[in-house]
Design goal:
57% of the residues lie in helices and 11% in strands. The protein is α+β, with helices and mostly antiparallel strands and 299 residues long. Strands 1-5-4-3-2 form a 5-stranded antiparallel β-sheet.
């Protein structure tokens, strides 16, 4: 889970690594307008205001923005919980995710060194928690693992539409005069911190993957990743049958009547195994019983 969060945090920070020069020479700036234009360029890909304020070529800004989108796409595809080739359309979804961030540039003031301090209120989005839940659901319901990429892309789109935002968190962005370069520069450290605050990364994983601590009557349901990975395929099949019985409220007679040699039944069980594998390979430390509760909550 820590590795997932660190890779995702890096992906979010990458988008704010464009060199940022807030004007040339020591002159009066409107700190609010500078930061608003900067964030508009970085999150929405709209460069006209920032290019005018900084004297930077708009084509250069766009080229750098496109490069960072490529880097973000690569990083997201390396995150283990997804474990899928999203194809060319994923880049567009990255842009959609960025364009929906919510913030207010509140005020600007000068400090004792004639640098600018700009207050920004950020409203963290729960989009990644929604994404993970929808990706998990896609993994559990698809019959063909080759379709996972398209299904996950749709899960991402749905999460963009359904996301909600938390209470405002205040951040400060410093615009500092660089004596050597003779120009103001926006603090990269501040913008990286701001980028990662756009999303509730802690809640995304903690709420979904934290073990409940429940001790279940069915011994299979107390399995964790250790028992699951160590089990032979026959035992995993029995575990999946136990999941099916509990999740769908089947009787012992119903389960006894299932022909596990039936190709359709085998496909359904393999689908469930794949879903559990994806969950555990992504760092989940929940028990099988907790996994069942996730299934039931989405039914």
């Amino acid at each position: 889970m820590k590795k997932w969060k660190s890779r995702l945090a890096l992906a979010l920070a990458v988008v704010l690594l464009i060199p940022v020069l807030a004007g040339c020479g020591r002159k009066e700036l409107d700190g609010v307008k500078v930061v608003e234009a900067y964030l508009k360029a970085q999150t929405k890909g709209e460069f006209d205001d920032y290019a005018k304020l900084t004297g930077t070529d708009e084509k250069k800004l766009k080229k750098e923005y496109e490069r960072t989108l490529d880097e973000m796409t690569e990083i997201f595809e390396e995150v283990e919980i997804f474990n899928v080739d999203f194809g060319e359309n994923f880049r567009k979804e990255i842009k959609n995710i960025l364009s929906t961030v919510k913030y207010d540039v509140v005020s600007s003031q000068k400090d004792e060194d004639d640098n600018y301090v700009v207050d920004v209120d950020v409203y963290p989005s729960d989009i990644f928690g929604l994404m993970f839940a929808k990706v998990m659901e896609a993994a559990k319901t698809t019959e063909d693992t080759a379709e996972l990429g398209d299904m996950m892309l749709q899960a991402f789109r749905d999460a963009v539409e359904e996301q909600s935002y938390g209470d405002a968190v205040r951040f400060q962005i410093h615009i500092i005069y660089n004596e050597d370069a003779k120009q103001y520069e926006i603090s990269q450290e501040d913008t990286e911190e701001l980028a990662m605050s756009f999303y509730d990364l802690e809640g995304a994983m903690e709420n979904l993957l934290a073990p409940s601590g429940t001790v279940y009557d069915n011994p299979y349901f107390n399995w964790t990743v250790t028992e699951w990975n160590a089990a032979p395929e026959e035992e995993k099949t029995q575990c999946c049958l136990a999941i099916i019985q509990d999740a769908w409220g089947l009787s012992d007679e119903d389960i006894a009547g299932i022909d596990i040699n039936d190709p359709q039944i085998q496909a359904a069980i393999q689908q469930m195994k794949d879903g559990i594998d994806i969950s555990y390979s992504g760092g989940a430390n929940i028990s099988i019983g907790d996994y069942v509760e996730l299934i039931k909550s989405g039914m």
